[in-house]
Amino acid sequence: MAIFCQFRTRCRTTLVHSSQIRMSQTETQYRQVIESCRSLFLKKNTDYGSSWRIMRLPSITDQIFIKAARIRSVQEKGLQKVSDSLESEFVGIINYCVIALIQLKLKGRDWTKDLATQELETLYNQVVEENIALLFQKNHDYGEAWREMRIASITDIILMKLHRLKQIENNEGRTLVSEGIGANYQDMLNYAVFALILSGPNDLQTR
């Protein structure tokens, strides 16, 4: 009996250690994807300023929908006639989700004024860190089940969340039992990161 208990303890310790290694790998890959997205975001901010501040949340939702719909269309047809890669569309989804979450943080502020680059980068980083915290919470409960998902399934989940989000927006943000607007943007952001991790090494600077 004592030998069995020792064996069970060793197995449990091994599983915990293995889980910690996987989570460390996930965080590293997550941050690598985000670093490429952030770099592109800040470069575009240098070119255009924070012109996106004019966009209301439903407009941002629609922009994300356009990108997700194109991804699904190309996945179903098996070919594309526009050179923009599907990876670049997932990058766009990530950055638009960040924009939406920043807009929620800045609710009530004058949208006609540009944000200083330093403040914008700080806000971007805050959103990312909040999402990584959410990722760790969900991975604790679900494990790394997302690693077994197909990218097409991730696309469908993003589109499903977009339809939910549109309904919530049509209800003026009111929900009875569902997650709120911000939670849906957070989930879509994380799913888009998962898609890029599962896609393997790619040049994320495309768009």
Class by alpha and beta content = mainly alpha
Average pLDDT number: 86
The outline comes out as: globular
| Element string (H = helix, E = strand) | HHHHHH
Uncertain residue ranges: 13-19, 203-207
Query: What is the alpha-carbon Rg in Å?
Result: 19 Å
**What is the helical fraction, as a range of percent?**
over 70%
Can you describe what's shown?
- With 207 residues, this protein is an all-alpha fold.
- The protein has one domain.
- It is 74% helix and 0% strand.
- It has six helices and no strands.
- The protein is globular and about 70 Å long.
- The N and C termini lie far apart (60 Å).
- Mean pLDDT is 86; it is low at 13-19 and 203-207.
Topology record:
Elements lengths: L1 H47 L8 H21 L8 H20 L11 H26 L8 H20 L10 H19 L8
